[in-house]
Amino acid sequence: MPRTIAYLSFVLMMSLVVLTSGCKTKKPRPAATDGEVLPGADTEYAMPERFEDGERITDVAFENVLFGYNQYDITGAEVAKIEAVASYLQQSTDVRLIAEGNCDERGSREYNVSLGENRAQAVRAYLISLGIDGARVQTKSNGEEMPLDAGHGEAAWAINRRVEFALYR
Amino acid sequence: MVKGFAFVCLMCVAAGMAWGADVTVSGSGGSGKVGIDLGGLTAAGQGGALKQVLIEDLKRSGWFTMAAGGGVEVRGQCVSGGGSARIDAEVINPATATRYFSRAYEEPTATWRRAAHRLADDIVKAVKNKPGMANARIALIGAPGGKKNLFICDADGQGLVQLTRDNKPCMTPAWSPDMRTIYYMSFHTGYADTYSIELGSRTRKKVAGFPGINANPAVSPSGQQLAIILSRDGNSELYVMSTGGGGASRLTRTGEAAEASPCWSPDGGQIAYVSDRSGSPQVYTVSRSGGSPTRVTHRGNENVNPDWGADGRLAYSSRRGGRYQVCVLDPRTGVETQITTGGADYEEASWAPDGRHLVAAKTSGYHSDLYLLDTLGDPEVRLTTMQGDWYSPAWSPR
Prior knowledge:
Chain A has helices spanning 2-20, 41-44, 76-91, 109-129, 154-160; strands at residues 24-25, 65-66, 74-75, 96-101, 137-141, 162-168. Chain A is an alpha+beta fold. Chain A has one domain (23-168): CATH 3.30.1330.60. In chain A, the strands form 2 sheets. A 4-stranded mixed sheet of chain A has the order 2-6-4-5. The longest helix of chain A has 21 residues, at 109-129. Chain B is mainly beta. In chain B, 11% of the residues lie in helices and 46% in strands. Chain B has a 5-stranded mixed sheet, with helices on one face. A 4-stranded antiparallel sheet of chain B has the order 8-7-6-29, with no helix packed on it. A 4-stranded antiparallel sheet of chain B has the order 9-10-11-12, with no helix packed on it. In chain B, helix 2 packs across helix 3 (113-128). Chain B is globular and about 65 Å long. Mean pLDDT of chain B is 92; it is low at 1-30. At the A-B interface, helix 2, helix 4 and strand 5 of A face strand 17 of B.
């Protein structure tokens, strides 16, 4: 009985989190305090072994998911892009995908490798939350090394802070 | 009076004090400069170039000014030619008529500059009782033709050796304590993986290729472990693993944060790293065995690229006024000193084995070169002069 109450309070709390987070859709993962171990969190989104075989699908393309400076939150307008990928993956059950995270040229080159990876991981976690099997999605980070636009202004930076979808069959 | 001063000097040398005896102190630049007289060091054949390398090494050390009749005299000869370079040197304190040392330095032609580098380090050690840096190496990333590869150069930026020909992004070289192996991260397969390169045999091995990233390896002082950023558990986190490639254990659990850029404390007990869990990248320290991290940077809206020096001071790049400036923090006292100023970005600072200097990538007008920075205030010195961008420097341990 206390267990059920605890479970219900948890569900209620999570609903509140979802309601109060407004248009900023956080990665669906419980917040952690440093040093605190979250049961299940380590393995829930654990990565599959790399798939390097398979044929790259080039006749289907999805819009890149864009991010703010030093951010890896998936914001309102970007959600629909991930949802489009999720419904494609639900239709095409033999397709696997690499989410490739990228950063703009600003900031630490080393930190940008981690930042690009967290962007890719945020997209992967969102796909998983939409019912996609995590084994079908792996991540890759290019840091700031592969800009789409080699320019140095906000217009270039905005399109460079992105996650691309590479599809494989 | 002179006799008394000389006596004090002698006592200091005899006691082997950490802060050596300054025989002559000049007013400008870093503190405690000694005049050194190389008039008695003759140069035969191509020995003139050898002597010039020695002069530049001594000036760059920050401890000497060239001065006739200075407080230190070097006598002997530089000979170069016939397949080898040789310096016979006698280093003297004329005030006390005592000899610091008398030694011969010989190198094959291919590495002739090292004869001067080794002598320069021995002079710093004998006169100032401090480690030198002239004979140390710097691992670095360069893009001379626009394509990125891993290189090594000498402490003066000369003697460049190319280690890889992948022409692909790579970064964060790190030396093993025995200087036989360099660990670094390369994108050459498309993934951010960590590799080791054995310098003797030039063989490359993948050390970490887990799903996700395997980034920013840092070698422990024992040489047995790597601090590294992995994301195999679903998020960028700090791990410690064997340099042989096995047994990764996780130190941070920040599902909502990105970790990067680890480095080890000199005793191997702690790791400093970057985390953005506060909302911006900042430097934290954590015990090597895990536990609760401590945030150590509080000024500047970003603090990145920490490097922990042998004397316990942390260097990092702090974003101030829109530019990355190198700062040095003593975690024991909390005293922070900003080393660079001006309109350029200084990033990826690495401590020299002398504990006084840092090498950093200075970026100005979208172009990067390595610069030598002095924590005691001497002007910066440009080390890379080749075409292209040069960055991600890592000084060898000695």
